[in-house]
From TrEMBL:
One Pfam match: Glyco_trans_4_2
Organism encoding this protein: Roseburia inulinivorans
Molecular function terms from GO: glycosyltransferase activity
Protein known as: Glycosyltransferase family 1 protein
Superkingdom classification of source: Bacteria
Residue ranges constituting the Glycosyl transferase family domain according to the UniProt record: 197-357
């Protein structure tokens, strides 16, 4: 039996984002293996359920930070052992360190598997700090030579890789629109809004901002909290969904701004399609994004966006049509954007009416078709 090993740094990434890919490969007759740091879950998942789905799990001591050299070197050795002992036919790696460790392990393994890497936003990009180019560009350029298929999720990364990198012989560069959004699940359901607001503690007549993202500095939730403090309107509420290292810092900021009654952190949620029904606007102020599937899910639910300008949001945000664009560190711009949507109900409705139409190309069906083609090409080359 052919075997494919999925490698991620972020534990729980596979069940959260790669269900469709797993299903494609199972339908093609592949045995599914999954390696990650299962001891440090970011996304909630059930190991027992994954095993019942026929997925074989492997614990590796991989860390998100490249500075964790000892742990990541250990993870590479663990991956080489897994690839060789299980006679892995192909690997598909995700997340930056997953891509580094997976491709190094594949290169030095005896099994010599076919290598796919999905770059969920390269760390070097137009406007990125020079240090990012110095540190990450040479590594990615080298590892591209050990890659059969390199998948990007935005046009800027695609053009960069296509123009600058050389892959393995007959290697290909592809672009997909993220992992795809289930447009049947994420759709406007106005009948649900009132009850869900009660559950979340949001008054029916309040203006509700929602964000779904890991709690870290890059996701930049603090600028929305600070903008709400400047607005100083008691009927503006903000719900932040997600876990992450900056939780304590954000709670401290909420306390300092005396916003405990208006801003809440509710952790990672599996009911985002329902929570989005309560939102008047979805805030996505990330400094850097590869794409940003959470924002696309909001658009699919008819919720307009307020975003920071980056290569990810440029893929779907049309300023003044389905949302508003701000510079990531421009607090005044976010204050103005929030106030514009807050104070003008007709304008808000105009934005909302175009939201769903603007993300049809990001549907699960489109992504699945692309991945079926990529995996089919891989399978033919392996055969």
């Amino acid at each position: 039996m052919k075997k494919i090993l999925y490698i991620t740094t972020i534990s729980g990434f596979l069940p959260q984002f790669e269900k469709n890919d797993v299903e494609i490969m199972q339908n093609m007759g592949y045995e599914i293996h999954y390696a990650s740091n299962l001891k440090k879950p970011i996304y909630t998942f059930d190991e027992k359920e994954l095993k019942q789905q026929g997925i074989i799990l492997h614990q590796i001591d991989i860390e998100k930070s490249p500075a964790q050299i000892i742990m990541n070197c250990r993870a590479i050795k663990q991956l080489i052992k897994i690839i060789d002992e299980e006679n892995i036919t192909a690997i598909h790696c995700h997340n930056p360190m997953g891509g580094v460790a997976g491709r190094i392990a594949a290169h030095y393994s005896k099994a010599d598997p076919y290598v796919i890497y999905t770059a969920h936003g390269l760390h070097f990009y137009k406007g990125a700090p020079i240090l990012n180019w110095i540190l990450f560009y040479p590594v990615e350029k080298l590892l591209a030579r050990w890659t059969d298929t390199l998948i990007t999720i935005n046009k800027e990364d695609y053009c960069c890789v296509k123009d600058r990198f050389k892959l393995k012989k007959n290697g290909t560069v592809e672009q997909i629109h993220g992992v795809g959004v289930d447009l049947d699940k994420f759709r406007p359901m106005p009948e649900m809004a009132s009850m869900k607001r009660i559950e979340l503690g949001i008054p029916n007549n309040a203006f509700h901002i929602v964000t779904a993202a890991e709690l870290n500095k890059n996701k930049n939730q603090k600028i929305i909290i600070e903008a709400i403090a400047v607005e100083n309107k008691k009927d503006i509420y903000y719900t932040i969904c997600g876990n992450g290292p900056d939780e304590d810092e954000l709670r401290k900021l909420i306390h300092e701004k005396k916003l405990e009654k208006q801003v809440q952190l509710i952790g990672f949620r599996t009911d985002m399609n329902e929570i989005l029904q309560t939102a008047d606007v979805f805030a996505f102020p990330s400094i850097r994004e590869g794409l940003g599937i959470a924002a696309i899910e909001a658009l699919a639910c008819g919720v307009p966006l307020i975003v920071a300008d980056n290569r990810g949001t440029r893929e779907y945000l049309q300023n003044d049509k389905n949302g508003l664009i701000c510079e990531a560190f421009d607090q005044d711009a976010f204050v103005t954007a929030i106030d514009k949507v807050y104070s003008n109900v007709e304008y808000r409705k105009k934005l909302a009416d175009y939201c769903r139409e603007s993300v049809i190309q990001f549907s699960t069906e489109e992504t699945v078709r692309t991945m079926e083609r990529i995996y089919s090409t891989m399978d033919k080359r392996i055969s």
